[in-house]
UniProtKB/TrEMBL annotation:
SMART domains assigned: HTH_XRE (SM00530)
PROSITE patterns reported for this sequence: HTH_CROC1 (PS50943)
Domain HTH cro/C1-type: 9-63
Protein name in the entry: Helix-turn-helix transcriptional regulator
InterPro entries linked to this entry: Cro/C1-type_HTH, Lambda_DNA-bd_dom_sf
GO MF term set: DNA binding
Pfam families per UniProt: HTH_31 (PF13560)
């Protein structure tokens, strides 16, 4: 059975419309090594994991959420939730978002 993290990586690669060869090149590993990882034939070193995640422009959180099958929050989701807040709470939320994105 293939590790769930590897399944997520393979799914994200396909969603990004990248080939195994492309990810391997960007991640700085041989195609054969990447193929073995993705097929579950070889355990991934942490350095390889980091390189692959960077190559796919992902974060550890993206991987963890996908493993847990938690769908990402969209802008529309956030806007809909914010509309349920009081005007004061909406203003506080905007100030918070502006603060953490500096």
């Amino acid at each position: 059975m293939i590790d769930p993290i590897v399944q997520v990586i393979a799914n994200r690669r396909k969603l990004a419309k990248l080939t195994r060869q492309q990810v391997a090149e960007i991640a700085g590993m041989s195609l054969k090594t990447y193929q073995r990882i993705e097929r579950g034939e070889s355990d991934m070193k942490i350095s390889q994991y980091r390189s692959i995640v960077r190559a796919l422009h992902l974060t550890d959180l993206d991987i963890a959420l996908d493993v847990k099958n938690i769908q990402p929050v969209t802008n529309a989701d956030l806007a809909a939730a914010a509309r349920l807040l009081s005007p004061d709470a909406q203003a506080m939320l905007v100030r918070f978002i502006m603060h953490v994105t500096k």
